[in-house]
Amino acid sequence: MSTTTPPKAIDGAIGFADERFATAGFLRGKMKKVFPDHWSFMLGEIALYSFIILLLSGTFLTLWFKPSMSEVVYHGSYTKLNGVSMSEAYSSTLHISFDVRGGLLMRQIHHWSAILFLGSIMAHMLRVFFTGAYRKPREINWLIGITMFTVAILEGLFGYSLPDDLLSGTGLRITQGVLQSIPIVGSYLYFFAFGGEFPGQDFIPRLYTVHVLLIPGILLALVAAHFMILWFQGHTQFPGKNREEKSVMGKPFYPVFLIKTTAFFVFTFMVVALLGTFAQINPIWLFGPYTPDSITAGSQPDFYMGFLEGALRIMPNWETNLWGHTVSWNVLVPALVPLGLIMTGAAVWPFVEQWATGDRRIHHIADRPRNAPFRTAVGMAAVAFYGLLWLAGGNDVLADKFHISLYQTTWFFRFAVFIGPVIAYIVTKRICLGLQRKDAAEYGHGVESGIIKMLPSGEFIEVHEPVKDDAEAVLASKPAAPALIAGQEEDENGIPSPASRGPLGRARRALNGAFAADDIPIGNGHAAGHGPGEPGAPGDDDGDAVVKHPETEGGEHRELSRG
Amino acid sequence: MIQMGPSSVKWFTAWRRRPWAGYAVVLAALAIIAVAYAGVSSGGDRAQASDTQASAQDIAKGKELFNQTCSSCHGANAQGTRTAPSLIGVGAASVDFQVGTGRMPAMNPGAQIPRKKPVFNEEQTRQIAAYIASLGGGPAVPSSDQVDPKTGDAALGGKLFRANCAQCHNFAGSGGALTGGKYAPPLDKATPTQIYEAMVTGPQAMPVFNDTTITPAQKRAIIAYVTQTRSEVNPGGNGLGRVGPVAEGLAGWLVGIGLMVVAAAWLTARKPKKKHND
């Protein structure tokens, strides 16, 4: 309790701002935001930093890129395309790649950042889902995240389409097909978007505006909202010794986390720059310009579109003719169903969980995935569904590289997409319960020490050592399984309560059962002598003087109670 | 000279008055025209050229080799069996391609016969080709001029390649999957002659691109495109196998996200407690 103000460097700046905007109190509090020390909490930051790199490298590319479908004849440095007619978009991308100093590197950095951006968003979302970090009060930020993910996929698709190379055009052709497959309005939508027949003159300039202006603007606004909410609500943290719901332990933003996160930005840039330097991405000069009569083996979208590509590849060729109009299930279903299932499912999940478990408490302690077996199993089923579709999107490469028949991969994935998630659900749930059993055994009996003792009677026993404090606190943190919701039980005559009747009531009961089932309680009477540690005052667990400061630790708590 | 003149004229006059002299003159003229024609059109008509090269001895030797190593599947007279097609009329180009790339003799009749180290040397290959060509017709082995990549227009070749070849062999000739376990092989090892032969003979799953579909000049252009593309350095770093976005996604996850997770774990790692702080 030596000081209640931040160090001088930051205090000076805060003072400067305060004298002009009266923000000292606000900033002082915000500067003390605590970031927990766990690697998985950094995944979202990869997305933030690659987004910044995307904005900067993208701005560089706009200086030379010409979003135009005007036909030109190429006579540039890449002689293998000399005299070939192509769109200005494609020729200006060649120009950036071969004639602008650093242009190819920037293009590659831009593309690799896009890969890293989407990849880290996915990893970040999985972390948030499996630890239950989306629970109250963070549902809105979860929804913002899903929106950003969806918009980012679109942004990536549009960026991939802009250079008008052979793969771009192939992707746009599929986009056109998807638009056209929408019943009733399909052909109108397609003509509206493309300004006429495919490929037309209008679509690339339109995509460009959306890609460099509209979507980055939306993303930037959402990123800001995401961060403001995060700053206000604070981070979740994993359970552990002295961890409790009311405070969060970790490093304060200033100065420790600021240094760490700056270093992390530099790391992100390093990884992207390394990839951009040493790994060739999107070699559009090899693909050649798009012409509707050409196609290449290995026509794939970037990885984040892969699950849609896979769905399209394994979908049977089903069409229905209704009143003289064709409904193209073969395109409509793969375009909408997997995306809808995953995104809508993820969006409604926090609310379904609240509704089914009746748990409307505020949660700041992250769940260990094993302690929420139903959620973890459903999550892994979704991962399996997504992953199998993703693999199916590369089925020709798989067939070629692993010498499997192409049609066999198609048929395999047609079944695996349904069976795989079920297997993933069952296996994950069993693993979770197995780990829970292991936890309960360790908590109750201690860990095997490897020391065998012979008793005077001649009996051999293995000495079990009690679990260490830190580990014990983690084990003891296991929340009680969600109880059946009050008022839903049957009465003494076996009549279900009114709330559980009807389809909704039955669904709720079933879901509630799924959340509550198969729980292995921890500390079931064996734990005498070493029960859960008393949650003490928030203290430091890694000897860092800055974090030890109670002011820093308590900041989060106060903000929360204010909110 | 003066004395010899009348006597030689007398001799020539005596000969040309003979009854068969007319026929002899016509024959001589035909022979001159034929030789001249053969000389002028030597580049275009390799079938004749290779036929003239194929001596009876080559054919006999080729037949011997055929009987030893090919006839068990293709039949004693190359007429084909249930396991292998007839080779009558496939031409020397087909033999040169199949034997020269090591595909024939095949070891294991699967969905597709893979390329492997050739069993026969160039001379033996030529002899078998001569024998098969002697059975009747078919495209002959192209001359080195016909397949010279230097005379081909790579830009035109690229256009033709993307329209005709890339859908199976991939945009950079890296190969791709086909139905039923078949595949379009990568074009990294095929020589210009073999690329030409593959186009004119259509081996295995490949369609035939005859000289009407793709003219000899266009074939040279395609050869120029393929050979230039495969020898071209990747200006952007490692080419990741030139198979497109699948490899890029894999690298992005394994290397990109992988390195970032290592960095995150390092940055958030707990340091050992400092003793003097306690």
Automatic annotation (TrEMBL), chain A:
Residues 526-536 have a biased composition (Gly residues). The chain crosses the membrane at residues 46-65, 114-134, 140-162, 213-232, 253-279, 331-352, 372-391, 411-428. It is a multi-pass membrane protein. It is found in: Cell membrane. Its main location: membrane. It catalyses: a quinol + 2 Fe(III)-[cytochrome c](out) = a quinone + 2 Fe(II)-[cytochrome c](out) + 2 H(+)(out). InterPro entries: Cyt_b/b6_C_sf (IPR036150), Cyt_b/b6_N (IPR005797), Cytb/b6-like_sf (IPR027387), Di-haem_cyt_TM (IPR016174). Residues 485-504, 518-563 are annotated as: Disordered. Its EC number is 7.1.1.8. Residues 545-563 have a biased composition (Basic and acidic residues). GO terms for cellular component: plasma membrane. Residues 13-239 form the Cytochrome b/b6 N-terminal region profile domain. One of its GO terms (molecular function) is metal ion binding. GO terms for biological process: respiratory electron transport chain. Keywords: Cell membrane, Electron transport, Heme, Iron, Membrane, Metal-binding, Respiratory chain, Translocase, Transmembrane, Transmembrane helix, Transport. This is Cytochrome bc1 complex cytochrome b subunit. It comes from Actinoallomurus iriomotensis. The lineage of its organism: Bacteria, Bacillati, Actinomycetota, Actinomycetes, Streptosporangiales.
Automatic annotation (TrEMBL), chain B:
It is a multi-pass membrane protein. Heme c 2 binds at C165, C168, H169. Heme c 1 binds at C70, C73, H74. Keywords: Cell membrane, Electron transport, Heme, Iron, Membrane, Metal-binding, Repeat, Respiratory chain, Translocase, Transmembrane, Transmembrane helix, Transport. PROSITE patterns: CYTC (PS51007). Coiled coil: none annotated. It is found in: Cell membrane. The keyword Cell cycle does not apply. Residues 57-136, 152-230 form the Cytochrome c domain. Gene3D superfamilies: Cytochrome c-like domain. Its EC number is 7.1.1.8. GO terms for cellular component: plasma membrane. Binds 2 heme c groups covalently per subunit. It catalyses: a quinol + 2 Fe(III)-[cytochrome c](out) = a quinone + 2 Fe(II)-[cytochrome c](out) + 2 H(+)(out). Pfam families: Cytochrom_C, Cytochrome_CBB3. It is an enzyme of class 7 (translocase). The cytochrome bc1 complex is composed of a cytochrome b (QcrB), the Rieske iron-sulfur protein (QcrA) and a diheme cytochrome c (QcrC) subunit. This is Cytochrome bc1 complex cytochrome c subunit.
